[in-house]
Amino acid sequence: MIYAYRSEKGVRDHNEDSIFVPTKHEMSLAIVADGMGGHNAGNVASSLAVKTAAAELKRGGRGLPEILVHKAISKANTAVYELALKDSNLSGMGTTMVLALPFRSRYIAANVGDSRIYQIYSSGGMRQVTTDHSYVAELVALGYITPEQAKTHPKRNLITRALGTSQNEKIDITNETWDKDDVLVLCTDGLCGTLDDKVIELTVREAATLDIAASMLVEKALKAGSTDNISVVLVQNTEVLL
Fold first, then answer.
1. Quick one: which of 41, 43, 104, 33 has its CA closest to 72?
2. What structural domains does the chain harbor?
3. What pTM does this model have?
């Protein structure tokens, strides 16, 4: 797998997003989290959740990958929830999370909140793999508003699920397939809430390298007026030649 990433605070005072990409010899895994909470609590929540989930998956264990992913994210939820209970300064903190555990011909996708995973097909086209856990996503699903109206809705930032805000949180986990040279885009709403899906797809396709694509996506989101932190991780299903 080839990985590329970029995370910027944008117009915010500090960056509450956290990401995980593997270093050399680590297992293939990608995580993006968007923290929320007063002062520095959002950063604490996202960082703790990412570190906990990654450590649990790297530890391994018996069972299907889907079960291991669920266990890892559940542990991340517990870690954030219990820390918030212990420290009044962190009360109410939480974080979104999207996670991809890739294999050669398939990957496990998981999400809580409104951060997203897209799959860009080498044969053409792109789809949103995850379903947003947000107020406007529910309105769109019910047919009350259109996807275009959701982008400017006054409650577009209201999420309905987040890690750490309750003792137990529902986690969406799916088993997906992908082909050689397909690309996964994991991102916070600072990116996907600003750029149209077509812009995201074309930017990745037209960039000379995955690193350039990650940088261009963040730069375009900034120029388009994103008011949030902006984070993206790209994963390409390509063997790395040593």
1. 33
2. 2-236 (3.60.40.10)
3. 0.91
